[in-house]
Amino acid sequence: MAAKKERNILWQVGCEGHTDAWVNAENWELATVAAAEFWGVPWREVAAHCEMKQKIVGAPRNICCRCRRVYYGAPPMCTACRKDVKLEEEYLQRRLKRAYQLGKVL
Asked: What would the mean pLDDT of 49-74 be, rounded to a whole number?
């Protein structure tokens, strides 16, 4: 039997309370799992709240989806953008936690 050719599909997954995550996955369900892993939360907490913001079939492998620069590393983002997005997520979680503590967000 012929091996199934892996398609390179890039997904931009959004969820309330988290920054947008760019992930490579074969289908939407695996994209939500990868996004939950990127955010560092259990999948069951975000699965119903995830929304697809963008889907790119046949995305180029070595072009960063955020800054559009050529890089040599693991897809879908360059190392600098990956660090920036992780830092944005951390700051967002701190702000939301502080807002909940002050009673500004219900």
From this structure: 90
